[in-house]
Structure formats: structure tokens, C-alpha cells
């Protein structure tokens, strides 16, 4: 019954990204749609008991890596209890989180206590005014303090920045990224701006990893280092200063052939591929009394929908499926 989850392209699933909520206290312009957002009603969000059941299934299916996402996962009430439950039950898992970092200075020690060993913190620029403008919030200083605190107590921290033309690709901005990474030892990874419903993507904003690397190399030549694992999504480079700069080319360079991850949305859908809008409701199955075997059968069916590689988004001019949902409802 319990066996490793392998898709039809013979890729073994070893990582699950679990969205705890579709809500966020930031309003990042490249992520959130304009205007009023109809948040998912609480009754439709997976309970911690339902999430724990899914973790049990995935663990028994040989998965050991779990990343908590959102929305912003830290705004879900008592999310620490869920972390503590699964990390104590399965002490050999790697439990990580993607966060905007606004609460880190308050909860960093607690995160380590409940089993969070890795954090990806979203920070698109080292400039307070530009940060306030893109997020439409004023947490810049709190985030920097929180990152320092988390790193100082042994949590492995990486910074995620969405690369955007004319926003964070100028010489001043790139120098600040280099200096911060060199001084702290924290890796900074640049993610290409991806097309999603409601995020107002345009060619005027899109910046390829190749063009961004070229801009960095004009300041400080970067040398690529080996990947930690074949499924690593980023290509990481190091400069003479010691700065570690990574690039996730999720648009221009398909890395689907080594994809080992799936997503669970906050409302309980299995999402086999980030950019494919086909989903499978595990919540409805659980609430209708489905057995573990029935859940696993649906999960395996879903895995067979995983793409061999994603379409050429540039050729398609980044038009996402009109029936798809916003990135915040999918989970990072």
C-alpha cells in the first residue's frame, strides 16, 4: 500500500509544499491581484488534523522534506502547534518554511524549537523606500532584524528575491545584494517573474536570469558551484567577495526533468505542477470518509499529470490559463 510516489516520467517525489493559508499581510504587486480579495472561508481550509493525516501518508510514502508556505504561513493561528506535532512525530523530516519575515524577530527562537530548520525569506531589495512601495507595507527593518536573529540561532536562511526589470537590477541594488551576502554568508536567490492570474505580468517587468547574471558579472565575476542535489531548482554562483548568488530560471530554463515536488493548497487540493491548473481535492475525499488507499490512488493519478517540461512561456507571451487561480491561492 505505502510505496514511494513516482510519476509516469519516473521521477520520485521527495518534497511536499504545504500551504497553510491563502492569506497574507503584504500586498506585493507581482503576487497579489489589485482590489478586494475574496479569501477562502475558514471552513474550506484544511485543519491541522487533516494536514497531519496527509503528512502521515507522505511520510509513509518515503517523503522526508516538507516546506510550509502560504500566503504567509506565520499568520495562521497556532501554526507552531502543527509544526511541533509533525516534527516530534517524525524527527527525521526536514521541515522548512517560506515567509515574508515580518514576524521573525518575535518568533525565530520558537520556530527552531518546533522543528523549523530552514527558512526562505522573501526580500526583493535592500532599499527601504522601494521595499515599502513593492510590498505596500513598512516591515523592512523588522525583516532584517528577524533574518539576523534566525541565522544567529542556527536556522539555515536564504533570501528569495523576485527579479524585476528597472526595480532591482540597477548597479546600486546589485552591489547591496553582493555586500549583504558577502558580509552575512546568506545566499540570495533571484526568481524570475512568473505569469499568474492577476499579477499583471508584462515584458517590461520580466528579467531573465541570464541577463541578471550578466549584470552581476559586470560588478563582480561569479563562478558557478556544484548543486547540492540533482533536484535543486537554483544555479548558485560565488564571487570573490564570498557572496553567494543563486538564480531560479522558472520561466526561461525549464528544470522540470528533475522536479521532485508537489503542492498541497490551503483548501486541500493536490497541485502536481505549479503552472498546470489541474488539481485534485484531497480535502473533499477526507471529509467524505476516504481511506488512505483511496487518497493515495488519487495522489498517484495526480502525479501522472505532471508535465515532462513546461511550455515555452516566452513564446506564449506568458498568458496563464484564464481559469487558473492567483499565485497566493496556489502556494509558494
Description:
This protein is 31% helix and 18% strand. It is an alpha/beta fold. Strand 3 (94-99), helix 3 (104-113) and strand 4 form a beta-alpha-beta unit. Helix 1 runs parallel beside helix 2 and helix 3 (104-113) runs parallel beside helix 5 (140-152). The two termini are 30 Å apart.
Any key phrases for this structure?
12-stranded mixed sheet; 10 helices; alpha/beta; single chain; 332 residues
Short description:
The chain is of the alpha/beta class. The chain is 31% helix and 18% strand. It has a twelve-stranded mixed beta sheet with strand order 7-8-9-6-5-4-3-2-1-10-11-12.
Q: What fraction of residues sit in β-strands?
A: 15-25%
Strand order of the largest sheet: 7-8-9-6-5-4-3-2-1-10-11-12
Inertia-based shape: globular
Unreliable spans are none
- Rg, rounded, reads 19 Å
What assembly state would you assign to the polypeptide chains in this entry? single chain
Mean pLDDT: 91
Topology diagram in text:
Blueprint: E1 15-19, H1 48-60, E2 65-69, H2 79-89, E3 94-99, H3 104-113, E4 116-122, H4 128-135, H5 140-152, E5 156-163, H6 171-184, E6 187-192, H7 209-219, E7 222-224, E8 235-239, E9 244-248, E10 261-264, E11 269-271, E12 280-281, H8 282-287, H9 292-303, H10 327-330
Parallel strand pairs: 1-2, 1-10, 2-3, 3-4, 4-5, 5-6, 6-9
Antiparallel strand pairs: 7-8, 8-9, 10-11, 11-12
Amino acid at each position: 500500500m505505502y510505496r514511494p510516489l513516482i510519476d509516469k516520467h519516473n521521477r520520485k517525489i521527495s518534497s511536499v509544499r504545504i500551504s497553510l493559508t491563502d492569506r497574507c499581510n503584504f500586498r506585493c504587486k507581482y503576487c497579489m491581484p489589485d482590489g478586494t480579495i475574496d479569501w477562502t472561508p475558514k471552513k474550506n481550509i484544511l485543519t491541522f488534523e487533516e494536514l497531519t493525516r496527509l503528512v502521515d501518508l507522505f511520510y509513509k510514502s518515503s517523503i522526508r522534506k516538507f516546506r510550509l508556505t502560504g500566503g504567509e504561513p506565520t499568520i495562521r493561528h497556532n501554526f507552531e502547534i502543527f509544526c511541533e506535532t509533525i516534527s516530534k512525530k517524525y524527527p527525521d523530516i526536514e521541515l522548512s518554511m517560506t515567509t515574508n519575515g515580518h514576524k521573525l524577530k518575535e518568533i525565530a527562537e520558537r520556530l527552531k524549537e518546533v522543528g523549523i530548520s530552514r527558512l526562505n525569506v522573501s526580500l526583493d531589495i535592500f532599499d527601504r523606500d522601494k521595499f515599502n512601495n513593492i510590498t505596500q507595507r513598512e516591515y523592512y527593518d523588522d525583516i532584517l532584524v528577524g533574518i539576523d536573529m534566525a541565522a544567529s540561532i542556527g536556522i539555515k536562511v536564504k533570501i528569495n528575491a523576485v527579479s524585476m526589470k528597472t526595480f532591482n537590477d540597477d548597479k546600486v541594488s546589485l552591489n547591496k545584494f553582493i555586500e549583504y551576502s558577502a558580509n552575512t554568508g546568506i545566499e540570495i536567490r533571484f526568481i524570475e517573474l512568473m505569469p499568474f492570474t492577476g499579477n499583471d505580468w508584462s515584458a517590461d517587468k520580466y528579467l531573465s536570469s541570464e541577463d541578471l547574471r550578466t549584470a552581476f558579472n559586470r560588478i563582480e565575476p561569479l563562478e558557478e558551484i556544484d548543486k547540492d542535489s540533482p533536484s535543486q531548482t537554483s544555479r548558485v554562483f560565488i564571487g570573490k567577495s564570498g557572496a553567494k548568488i543563486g538564480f531560479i530560471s522558472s520561466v526561461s530554463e525549464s528544470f522540470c526533468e528533475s522536479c521532485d515536488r508537489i503542492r498541497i493548497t490551503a483548501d486541500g487540493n493536490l497541485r502536481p505542477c505549479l503552472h498546470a491548473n489541474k488539481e485534485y481535492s484531497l480535502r473533499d475525499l477526507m471529509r467524505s470518509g476516504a481511506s488512505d488507499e483511496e487518497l493515495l490512488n488519487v495522489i498517484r493519478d495526480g502525479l501522472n499529470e505532471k508535465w515532462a517540461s513546461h511550455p515555452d512561456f516566452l513564446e506564449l507571451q506568458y498568458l496563464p490559463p484564464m481559469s487558473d487561480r492567483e499565485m497566493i491561492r496556489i502556494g509558494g
